[in-house]
Amino acid sequence: MDVVHVTRAAETFTCNAYLAADGHSTLVDAGAYDGVVDELRRHVDDLDAVVLTHQHGDHVEQLDAVVDAFDPAVYAFADHPLRTHELADGDTVTVGSDDFEVVFTPGHAPDHVSLVSETALFSGDVVVHDDGAFDDGSFGRTDYPGQSRERLIGSVRELLTRMPDSVEHMYAGHGEVFHGDVRSVVERALERAERREPKYPGE
């Protein structure tokens, strides 16, 4: 599976949006980068699908523009005016050339899902490799209304039970792409979340 980080050039706040251009061309999250459509057109003529990990603004702000440009199917757990396919825990979705299991992972957001294949993890914001809080194994913030540290901890534990040991590519909603022992990164994130300490100093 060939994955392109299409919001890398953004100079304003956005999530990481990833394009799998091979096979069933799929965008994981639309981001908030107003140049995302132009970036997508550098890589594909058509876009088959958009899969949303959750619907926080930095993940969906440009969804209207992407749909207007490409008319893709839109997969999401929670309702959205542009959703064409509802996601549920245990579903299978095709991203690029690979099939992924949908794992319901609330806590950072009530509608959060992660996508797991034999070799890759799209973790959204539930777990990231590095994000300014921790350099190697961090977790989504849970201090805003509607968020829950307890639910996030349960979600990361569930993710570990459903993620094969063979996963070696981690595409998170923030920070850098990680290639290597993804399970160890997720385990470190879980350990930090379980301390129930603020994610950022002073919070």
UniProtKB/TrEMBL annotation:
Zinc as UniProt keyword: yes
PANTHER family to which the protein is assigned, alphabetical: HYDROXYACYLGLUTATHIONE HYDROLASE GLOC
Keyword rRNA-binding: no
GO molecular function (one): metal ion binding
Protein name (Swiss-Prot/TrEMBL): MBL fold metallo-hydrolase
Residue ranges constituting the Metallo-beta-lactamase domain according to the UniProt record: 14-174
Transmembrane residue ranges: none
Organism: Halobacterium bonnevillei
Keywords: Hydrolase, Metal-binding, Zinc
Top-rank lineage group of the source organism: Archaea
InterPro entries on file: MBL_Glyoxalase_II, Metallo-B-lactamas, RibonucZ/Hydroxyglut_hydro
Obligatory cofactor(s): Zn(2+)
